[in-house]
Write a structure and sequence with these properties.
Length: 250
């Protein structure tokens, strides 16, 4: 089993823990936080919690059971995982070596079938969707011309990418998908009707929703790869146990 420890005792850490626990070869050892959070007590009922020695009194005051301190936490794990909700990135630490997976890494990987020379992510802060997705305009520069029909085909068939090809209300997406198609919080959702080809013919803009935990599947694959498991094999395992689906949502 691959033993993973998570930094944080917040709702993001809880979602991350659930995703990791879905994998047959992963064991989440516990969650670490210097001081308790508003959900630490609830988390203590489903996993081991760790804290700093100086923070122990705060946990005791709230009646929260602690498994051990930072040293105990680090001794029991193979990988350390930390999620940054502001950057939507995951940092992995393994034997003193750290790698960070952010939105640009994830999108470039998932759109690898498209001849991309440059990607710019323009987060659209003027549009509020919900806590589960971050709206963004993807500005793609292509290294060669591709017809819009071919581009759509590539997007629809891209792994870990979901597409919508009709007019939808973002509120509908936020209410329905995170709960009834939970895998979408690990996905990039592309709105095909928003595709705009610029005059130079090599630049494409497309509106998207970036699932807040989109880095999770790639993080799991990176962990397995560091353990000598082929990435393609890992991706199949990861996607199966996260119930990941690609193609048209609507």
């Amino acid at each position: 089993m691959i033993r993973i420890g998570i930094i944080g005792q917040d709702p993001y850490a809880a979602h991350l823990m659930d995703a990791l626990r879905s994998q047959p070869d992963v064991d989440v050892i516990g969650l670490y936080s210097h001081k308790p959070t508003s959900i630490s007590k609830d988390l203590s009922e489903v996993t081991n919690l760790f804290c700093s020695e100086s923070g122990l009194e705060y946990f005791k005051e709230r009646g929260i059971k602690v498994k051990g301190f930072l040293e105990d936490f680090l001794e029991g794990i193979d990988f350390l995982m930390e999620y940054d909700p502001n950057e939507l990135s995951i940092k992995l630490t393994f034997e003193g070596t750290g790698i960070q997976l952010g939105p640009k890494d994830i999108i470039l990987s998932r759109l690898s079938s498209i001849p991309l020379s440059k990607l710019r992510i323009r987060w659209t802060s003027d549009i509020y969707c919900c806590p589960f997705f971050r709206p963004a305009m993807l500005e793609l520069e292509l290294s060669e011309r591709v017809s819009l029909e071919t581009l759509r085909d590539h997007l629809i068939s891209s792994r870990r990418v979901s597409s919508i090809n009709r007019e939808v209300d973002l509120n509908e997406v936020c209410i329905y998908y995170p709960f009834f198609r939970r895998y979408t919080i690990f996905s990039i959702i592309l709105f095909l009707r928003s595709i705009e080809a610029l005059k130079d013919g090599n630049s494409i803009n497309i509106f998207s929703l970036y699932g807040i935990l989109s880095a999770v599947p790639e993080a799991i694959d990176a962990i397995r790869e560091m353990r000598g498991i082929d990435r393609e094999v890992s991706s199949s395992i990861t996607d199966h146990h996260l119930n990941m689906k690609s193609g048209l949502l609507a």
